[in-house]
C-alpha cells in the first residue's frame, strides 16, 4: 500500500493497518459474543443477580486481549507522536507570530518615517516653486527696468 497523507493527516499505511485491526476486532467480538451466548444461555439461567441480570463472564479470550493491547499500544504511540507534532507546531507558530509582530512594527516605523519625509519634501517643493515664481517675476521686472534703461540710454545717445 502506498504511503501518503490523506484528509485527516493519517497516512494511507496507517489507515490500512487500522482497517485490518478493525476487521480483526469485529471478528473477535462477534466470535466472543457467540461463545458468550452459548455458555450464558445454559449455565447462567438460574444464576440471576439481585437486579435480574446474569453475572459477568470470567473466561475472556487471552488472544483477543493481546490483539487489543497491541492496538491500544499502537494508538497510544500515534497519540504521543501527534501530541509531539502539535507541540512543535505550536512552538513554530509562536515563533512565526513573534517574528510577524516584529516585522509589522518595523514596517510601521518605516512607513511613519517615509510619510514624514514625504511631507518635508512637499514643503521643500512648495518653497522652491515659490522662489522660482518670485525669481521669474524679478527677472521680468529686471527686463522691464533694463528696457527702460536702454531706452533712456538710446535717447541720451541720440540727443548727444
From TrEMBL:
Pfam families the UniProt entry points to: Lzipper-MIP1 (PF14389)
UniProtKB keywords: Coiled coil
Highest taxon listed in the record's lineage: Eukaryota
Domain Ternary complex factor MIP1 leucine-zipper: 107-145
Coiled coil: 65-131
UniProt feature, compositional bias: Basic and acidic residues: 1-16
Regions of compositional bias (Low complexity) in chain numbering: 27-43
Name of the protein: Ternary complex factor MIP1 leucine-zipper domain-containing protein
Highest classification ranks of the organism: Eukaryota, Viridiplantae, Streptophyta, Embryophyta, Tracheophyta
Amino acid at each position: 500500500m502506498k504511503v501518503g497523507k490523506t484528509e485527516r493527516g493519517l497516512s494511507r499505511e496507517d489507515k490500512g493497518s487500522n482497517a485490518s485491526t478493525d476487521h480483526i476486532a469485529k471478528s473477535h467480538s462477534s466470535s466472543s459474543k457467540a461463545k458468550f451466548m452459548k455458555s450464558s444461555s445454559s449455565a447462567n439461567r438460574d444464576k440471576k443477580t439481585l437486579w435480574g441480570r446474569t453475572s459477568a463472564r470470567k473466561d475472556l479470550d487471552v488472544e483477543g486481549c493481546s490483539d487489543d493491547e497491541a492496538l491500544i499500544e499502537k494508538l497510544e504511540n500515534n497519540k504521543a507522536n501527534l501530541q509531539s507534532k502539535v507541540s512543535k507546531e505550536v512552538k513554530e507558530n509562536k515563533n512565526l507570530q513573534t517574528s510577524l509582530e516584529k516585522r509589522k512594527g518595523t514596517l510601521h516605523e518605516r512607513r511613519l518615517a517615509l510619510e514624514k519625509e514625504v511631507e518635508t519634501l512637499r514643503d521643500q517643493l512648495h518653497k522652491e516653486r515659490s522662489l522660482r515664481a518670485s525669481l521669474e517675476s524679478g527677472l521680468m521686472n529686471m527686463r522691464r527696468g533694463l528696457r527702460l534703461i536702454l531706452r533712456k540710454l538710446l535717447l541720451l545717445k541720440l540727443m548727444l
